[in-house]
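Service request form, structural biology core

Requester: graduate student, group of Dr. S.
Request type: structure prediction, single chain
Budget code: on file
Notes: please return the result as structure tokens.

Sequence provided:
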Amino acid sequence: MAETPLDVYMNDFYSKSNEAKQILKEIEVTLKKGSRNKVCARQRKAAKLGLLANDALIKAFEISGEEVPIEVIQASELRWKSILNKC
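Core staff response, request fulfilled:
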């Protein structure tokens, strides 16, 4: 079965979002072990994935014709940008 454009964007959102969260979990474990090995680079990668996930979610809402929850998306963007810039 072919995926609809909505499916493509939702899958993109979930895969990028999950990957970003997994990277952040790995960073947390690394820091708890007392290492800072490549933490900043991995943190930036997670943040960029999070921001791309938000973009995919916005496109999915637009395709579905539903109203984009701007406040929620903006809060998420602020969080990801904070992670991106605070290393």
